[in-house]
């Protein structure tokens, strides 16, 4: 897994390189924080606080080390800080549960890049109709009803095609990532 972003215009460890690295990790950080809070608005706020802290600590990051693990650790402490502030609410996760979820998320993150690469390859292997519906639904954010109307399908038929495409993608990704771990 590549942990650094190389930029020929700026030396490794430069502010631009760090900003690129931070920007590329935003979806992963957001998902990690969301998994620890189960609160959409709070996870957005915590992500912002995490980004501020990461930027403040950017000089502490050692280029070539695991940025994901480092940023997750910072995010973890931001979540704990948020939780201390919410301690008076009736419903909240205990620290042991949050630690357990954090550990599981960190382990899952290790395979993220591998699965993303597999997804890209698997999309190209889909039959044309399935590839088209996946791209329109997830890249163009079109509704199933709009896609169905455009393709001359009933919405249920478009949903079935989308389901088959997702099933094929999942099988393909699992096969590709399983063969990479075996070999």
Task: Write a concise keyword list for the protein shown above.
183 residues; Rna Polymerase Sigma Factor, Chain: A; Arc Repressor Mutant, subunit A; 2 domains; disordered N terminus
Structure commentary:
- With 183 residues, this protein is mainly α.
- It has helices at 15-24, 26-37, 40-56, 67-85, 95-109, 112-125, 128-139, 144-151, 155-182.
- It has two domains: 15-110, Rna Polymerase Sigma Factor, Chain: A (Orthogonal Bundle), CATH 1.10.1740; 113-182, Winged helix-like DNA-binding domain superfamily/Winged helix DNA-binding domain (Arc Repressor Mutant, subunit A), CATH 1.10.10.
- The chain is 74% helix and 0% strand.
- Helix 2 packs across helix 3 (40-56), helix 3 (40-56) crosses helix 4 and helix 8 (144-151) packs across helix 9.
- It is elongated, with a radius of gyration of 20 Å.
- The two termini are 16 Å apart.
- Residues 1-12 have low confidence and may be disordered.
In short:
The protein is mainly α and 183 residues long.
Give the overall silhouette.
Answer: elongated
The helix content, as a percent range, equals over 70%
> Major sheet, described briefly?
none
Unreliable spans: 1-12
The CATH topology assignment of the largest domain is: Rna Polymerase Sigma Factor, Chain: A
| Terminal-residue CA separation | 16 Å
Spell out the blueprint of helices and strands.
Layout: H1 15-24, H2 26-37, H3 40-56, H4 67-85, H5 95-109, H6 112-125, H7 128-139, H8 144-151, H9 155-182
């Amino acid at each position: 897994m590549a942990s650094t972003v190389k930029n020929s215009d700026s030396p490794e460890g430069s502010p631009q390189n760090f900003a690129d690295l931070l920007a590329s990790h935003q979806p992963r950080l957001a998902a990690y924080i969301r998994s620890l809070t189960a609160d959409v608005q709070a996870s957005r706020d915590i992500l912002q606080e995490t980004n501020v802290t990461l930027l403040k600590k950017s000089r502490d990051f050692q280029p070539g080390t695991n940025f994901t693990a480092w940023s997750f650790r910072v995010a973890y402490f931001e979540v704990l800080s948020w939780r201390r502030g919410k301690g008076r609410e009736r419903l909240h996760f205990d620290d042991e549960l949050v630690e357990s979820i954090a550990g599981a998320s960190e382990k899952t993150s290790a395979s993220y890049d591998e699965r993303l690469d597999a997804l890209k390859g698997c999309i190209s292997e889909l039959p044309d109709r399935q590839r088209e519906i996946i791209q329109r639904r997830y890249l163009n954010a079109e509704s199933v009803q709009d896609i169905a109307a455009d393709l001359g399908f009933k919405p249920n038929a478009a949903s079935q095609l989308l389901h088959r495409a997702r099933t094929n993608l999942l099988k393909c990704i699992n096969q590709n990532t399983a063969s990479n771990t075996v070999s």
